[in-house]
Amino acid sequence: MASQGLCPSIKNILLLDSEGKRVAVKYYSDDWPTNNSKLAFEKFVFSKTVKTNARTEAEVTLLENNIIIYKFVQDLHFFVTGGDDENELILASVLQGFFDAITLLLRSNVDKREALENLDLILLCLDEIVDGGMILETNGPLIAEKVTSHSLDADSPLSEQTLTQAWATAREHLTRTLLK
After folding, report:
1. CA 92 to CA 68: how far, in whole Å?
2. What are the DSSP calls for 70-120, one per residue?
3. Which residues contact 143 (CB under 8 A, 6 or more apart)?
């Protein structure tokens, strides 16, 4: 999916739990057109990497003509997938940026429970890192700052707010209307 090798692209970013179940995933490629094919890919990647020791440093593997960079932290498994012609260092910088941003947003308490409680922030993180397969940002602290600024900006358009923020904004507007 890389444009003649000029611009690196990401096929997907996966955040799985210690059993290989989805926590947060985002696909940017049509390589897996159905939900079943996506689940099968996630299960395949998890089964091939679960026995490795990717806790201190990110690891690299080539599976089904895809380069996969991955790292495990407590009960979460982080994966970034690119085509077999992508640069591993660029994919690793995406993974590290995602991991650093999540670590900052979850206040260094990177585990499944905390991730599920802050799923909206994680999904915003994914949106800040990659758009349509194109890498936008790899600096973890900057990604976390952008995500938290989204979370604090109640005057932003509803299309840019999370569901919880949209409900809070609607409630505020309704309250103001009723009190007038």
Report:
1. 9
2. EEEETTEEEEEEEETTS-HHHHHHHHHHHHHHHHHHTTT--SHHHHHHTHH
3. 97, 98, 100, 101, 125, 128, 129, 137
Give the angle 166-171-174 at the CA atoms, nearest 5°: 125
Q: Which residue do the tokens 């897996």 mark?
A: 32
Residue 168 exposure: Cα atoms within 13 Å on the Cβ side: 11
Give me the amino acid identity at 123.
Answer: L
Residue 19 Cα distances to 4, 43, 51, angstroms: 37, 9, 12
**DSSP β-ladder status, 22-27 and 59-63:** unpaired
The pTM for the full model equals 0.77
Digit-coded pLDDT (tens) for 53-106:
877 788 899 998 999 999 998 889 999 999 989 999 999 999 999 999 999 888
Residue 161 near residue 122, CB atoms below 8 Å: no
Phi, psi of 47 (to 5 degrees): -65, -30
